[in-house]
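Archive entry: two folds, one per protein. Generate the first.
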Amino acid sequence: MTAIAVTIAGSDSGGGAGIQADLKTFAALGVFGASVITALTAQNTRGVTAIHDVPADFVTAQMDAVFADLDVHAVKIGMLSRPAVIEAVAAGLADRAHRNVVVDPVMIATSGDRLLAPEAVDVLRRELLPRALIITPNLPEAAALLDTSIAESETDMRDQAERLLALGARAVLLKGGHGAGPESVDIFLDGTAELRLPAPRIATSHTHGTGCTLSSAIAAGLAKRLPLAEAVVQAKAYVTLAIATAGRLEVGTGRGPVHHFHAWW
């Protein structure tokens, strides 16, 4: 049976993040990818210059079309910039009781541009996080969801991961890429198990789309019926190599994309 995953996220016209990164990740990991576009961005490696939100009813129409025909095994959710779109996506998931939902609470682009309206944070927290199998915030996103300061240590990260679990998701992968030190450490918690996932911190400016790629890689693993913890470990390894090999690409003049197809070219 063909493994199928769908990404519900915004489009990146520069091709390095969002829907484009998600579909590349699915393809690289042997999963057929479908998409529901929630917003269009005018974006490149240097930043976001404009955002055009897709109407909530059209987001619903896309979800209806995909789920009515395709046997979707995993759902990755990325940029949902407005409350009405978040509510539409949450309602669509509730109608289908889908379990393998990976939520990447995209709030700020790698360039620093805000992608989530401030008034949408509470809606995201209330409507979507409880429907997630796993959420994958970075340190600033976790702080925003918890209305607290950014974690400065692994102890802080564990504490925040536990607080995020209390918001309703069944598991949390708190990403440490915004931290300091020779290692980038992610913390995984699911209420019963904990994993410390270190990787060497790579000195590179090619980090555009890193969060999108990691969450999509987790969804790809779930679509292939991997247990959640194994999907997380394999996704971390994939994105680490995608960052390490990104220097092979000559794309743009700002923060370049990671190398989704590093195993092939």
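Generate the second and append.
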Amino acid sequence: MNLPNKLTLSRFALTVAFLAAIFSEIRFHETIALALFLAASLTDYYDGMIARRDKLITNFGILMDPLADKILVCSAFIAFVGRDLMPAWMVVLIVARELAITGLRLLAAAKNVVLAAEGYGKHKTVSQMVAIISILVLASYEQWGGWADNVFGSAIFGAPWVAMFAELSKWLAVMFTVISGAMYLWRNRNLYLQDL
């Protein structure tokens, strides 16, 4: 098994560890969850970069890399509902979009059509990662001591700026997720309309 595929598999293990940490009652569990999510995000960046650079792209990687990404991101958002860090309706929209696009890609693969990633999809991914990280920072920064309170706790309109940033990032993630999903489904509508 090559290094990119090992990194992809490690993302599954890091997702399990992330979920265990975020629902744990141990001290600093939110900080541990943040560190695990950041580590998993780095494996996502490096497995693709190494695979392209060293020409180690495999069918396993093509299938499992996006699956590992979706499981990581959807697990984080669902966990946020369980921890009252994000409204359920937002997470339902995000998870539904990911399932719909995965279904469309499976339908395309069954017809020997490869659907390339689009620009809006990349914006969606970045917005989701920023939202998850900002929510985790908001949940954990008070555990880091006085310096973090000075950096992240500075008030704007009576609330820590990181709280406002996290709220804005949630809305942007939902917006980019819904728009990119709708555009993707519309542009590739011939794939599913011909089977109706």
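Annotation attached to the second fold: The radius of gyration is 18 Å. The domain at 3-191 is CATH 1.20.120.1760 (Four Helix Bundle (Hemerythrin (Met), subunit A)).
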